[in-house]
Amino acid sequence: MSDPVAGNAKADRIVASYMLLCDSHSMNGGKHNYYGVFSIIGAPALPCAHPSMHLAVELLGPMDEEAEVRILFLDSDDAEVVPPPPPTKIRFSPFGVANLEIDLQGLPLPKAGIFTLVVEVQGRKVAGRTLYVQKV
């Protein structure tokens, strides 16, 4: 059975298969391994910065084509917590799959609340991952 997304070159057909926040990522035999998947951070004091986390995303889209990806970190009012890094180019495989593993070092957590990491492709939101921050 063919994938309904793969092979369609329109940016509005790019979707996320998964989006995870985790402590670390590795590759073994062509497989992605994600360790310490989480969505809640308990901080003893706020504001603070999380020392290290990984954002892992699998996108499905046009076979053998490139797309521009941008990552945003937003608060509950959809305001940017930090300026977004420059966009990056990804290339979809011959099967229409692209994997993104981004190491986020020192991500600022200004207060307790609900935050969202957003993935935009060609200027369109394709995925969001909620991050809950609480003081413990």
What does this protein structure show overall?
- This protein is mostly beta strands and 136 residues long.
- It has one domain (11-135): Immunoglobulin-like, CATH 2.60.40.2550.
- The chain is built from no helices and ten strands.
- Strands 4-10-9-6-7 form a five-stranded mixed beta sheet, with no helix packed on it. The protein has a three-stranded antiparallel beta sheet with strand order 1-5-8, with no helix packed on it.
- A hairpin with a 2-residue loop joins strand 2 (24-28) and strand 3.
- It is globular.
Question: What's the arrangement of secondary structure elements?
Answer:
Blueprint: E1 15-22, E2 24-28, E3 31-35, E4 40-43, E5 48-60, E6 66-74, E7 88-91, E8 97-109, E9 113-121, E10 124-135
Parallel strand pairs: 4-10
Antiparallel strand pairs: 1-5, 2-3, 5-8, 6-7, 6-9, 9-10
Observed structural traits:
mainly beta, Immunoglobulin-like, 5-stranded mixed β-sheet, globular
